[in-house]
Here is the input.
Amino acid sequence: MKDISSLNPKKILVCQLRQIGDVVLATPSVSLLHKRFPNAEIHILTEEKCTQVFDNNPAVGHVWAIKKNELRNPLKALAFYWKVGRSGYDLIVDFQQLPRCRWVVMFSDAPVKLAEMPPWYNRWLYTNWPESIPDGYAAMYKAGVLKPLGIDWNYERPKLFVSDEERAEAKSCLESLGVGENEPLITIDASHRRYTRKWPEEYYGKLIGLTAKERPNFKFFLLYGPGEKDVALKVRDESGVPDKCVMLEKPGSLRLMAALIERAVLHIGNCSAPRHFAVAVGTQSIVMPGSSGSWVFPSPEHEEVVAGMDCAPCGKERCERGDLACLTKVLPEDVLLRVLDRV
Here is the structure.
């Protein structure tokens, strides 16, 4: 591998296709690249559903959106990847090495193609990679890929840039739901596609009820995504204080979610994208991670509540114990104490 510590690229492509939370966790690396190469134009390759993460980001000059429905035809897909790859990049940073990323890397004539150490059968695609990356916070791990460029992570947090217009939209949304401008708000994210990372709805409901008793002036905004409304409704029903719970009739945009979480005094949820949004907009958070690990930003403002199981975090999608003890042994009463310490 060649030494690239003195590289001075003029055009950079960063590949981070999904999921939304992982894309948010790539934003510190984008900021670090912008800081290291302030005159370089930085482009992003990501899935269409994730593009809003980079709205208003001053480090980003262009976002290539992968629209899956439009790229079902293999010839159209290859033409798109060719167009991206042949767009004159001096440096490509590939955080995922997914097939669609590899097509772009293969088509590109960029002199430097950087990634985490690839498996032996893909190494011919890349020119450089770090010899090793320490385990730890996921955004730190991603930034570790940039080590050959002379870039080090120094506790840079994920960043979402919420505009005044988006704040005004959040204010209007809350007013329509009966939340006054000065009423304190807690955002609640009770959904997750993996059952090993999903604190029970009845626990969320009980926590809301207990918190409302101690903080009667608080409101609770129930977040949910496509196909998850039933989770939010169950939390509201289990709370015993449905008048304190507010939610949208349909899922809102990522930008609205960011503005709502920014407006909140605290975010409570599972290990999913909204927890990273909280870090990225400067709102403190409490998370019940279940099987998940290495996702909490190293700061007292952000906390994970765990049951102390020997098997956790296992990182698995299936509970081998069969009892989900890493979740069910974290009781609402225990989480309440953490909440009351913060609000």
